[in-house]
Amino acid sequence: MNSLVWFGNNLRVTDNSSLARASKGSRVIGVFCFDPRWQQQHPYGFAKMGRFRARFLLQSVLALRESLKALHITLLVYHARPEDILPRVVETHAIDTIYRQREWTRDEDSVLRKVQSQLAQGVRWEEEYDQFLYHPDDLPYQRLADIPNVFTDFRKRCERYARIRPYSGPISPLPKNNLLERASEVPSMEALGYREFKTDPRTAFHFQGGEAAAMDRIRGYFWQSNNLSRYKKTRNGLLGSEYSSKLSAWLANGCISARTVYAEVKKYEREVQKNQDTYWLIFELIWRDFFKYISLKYGGAIFKPGGIRDRHVSWKRSKSAFEKWTEGTTPEPFVNANMRELALTGWMSNRGRQNVASYWSREMGQDWRSGAAYFESLLIDYDVHSNWGNWMYHSGVGNDPRDRKFNIKRQAEHYDPNGEYQRYWLQQQLFQEPDLETRNKEKK
């Protein structure tokens, strides 16, 4: 049996169900496509994937290629639409089974249907729900419709009745003759349509993409510094790399699985310390699962103006307001500091994200979807489920049962009492206009 693993948001060799199943065949190859549609203009006026996301993804793919090569598996990498590439690879290498991580959101589902329409009949598909902490088959609910809309209800029931599957290690190396004699070149940033750039030295996220880098971060944050023992106390920090785990970017790209992170936390609890802080990282993994299940339950409703609550809101769509918000020139310094950090680094703290989202949609009354799309373009750790789920939550059209609106000044006083973070990002001599291809295209 000749197998193909179509890699997407599962760029790892450890705890990768699709790769493990494919490796039982007689020949295995991998394929990853940098889809040119990721650079197309979003309906809200900028590229779907900006340079920060693109570079981290490219690093992750390069790392995956080397890891697979050590297992005698070739990763073919293309800058092309999957529906134009996969049928050709399937025919050339006599592939009879395609393995992939199951995706269900709008764009991913559209691409899948295009690929399937181009393939010859007889090619089997094997898909795995491999991005969860709690696998769908293990949830304490009979139907998707039974999944509650309130996180606390979901968390408590899962913690009580659901099990978390153990993670699996990397597969054993295949015979050396499994490697193809010729492999494709991995495109550069320039070939993908992005300019190379230097990382802003002030960034709180200075890490590389890839599975090895993810494990290095766990070693540093868990075992070398014991920062995990202080996670809950520091997770609302604003400055520096150590106020939170920063694992979200690797999780978003599938460089590491949620099950692996969970296993490392439990090992840490056994060998070092178990406290509320260590539990809180698991708590955040359950939040991540929750938004994935909400998007699975509601489908395309997560992209609608009224969200999953189908609320009728007369959202404003002011271009000048959007420019002030994205450029950090609103009347709120705390919002401005966070937005400048995002524009210059592709990163923003969780506390900052909540505040700028609430300000954009609840204070300014602007269409929350344009804010979510802007985050999609820039955030290194963009995850379709968490991003759009959180934006709905903070815009009053999602899962917040209390329908809260942030008091920005009070938030700034509490989380940045001395104004250190705001000064850090608002000093004019330090601020440079971000070189955003997306914004330049919009203004032309």
Summarize the structure.
With 444 residues, this protein is α/β, with parallel strands linked by helices. It contains 18 helices and five strands.
Based on secondary structure, the structural category is alpha/beta
Estimated radius of gyration: 22 Å
Order of helices and strands: EHEHEHEHEHHHHHHHHHHHHHH
Indicate the proportion of strand residues. Answer: 5-15%
Identify the overall geometry: globular
Number of helices: 18
Key features?
444 residues; alpha/beta; 5-stranded parallel sheet; disordered C terminus
Describe this structure in words.
With 444 residues, the protein is α/β, with parallel strands linked by helices. It has 18 helices and five strands. The protein has helices at 17-22, 51-70, 82-92, 106-118, 151-161, 211-224, 231-234, 248-252, 258-271, 276-298, 319-327, 333-345, 350-363, 368-378, 384-394, 408-415, 420-426, 437-443; strands at 2-6, 27-33, 74-78, 97-101, 124-128. Strands 3-2-1-4-5 form a five-stranded parallel sheet, sandwiched between helices. Strand 1, helix 1 and strand 2 form a beta-alpha-beta unit. It is globular, with a radius of gyration of 22 Å.
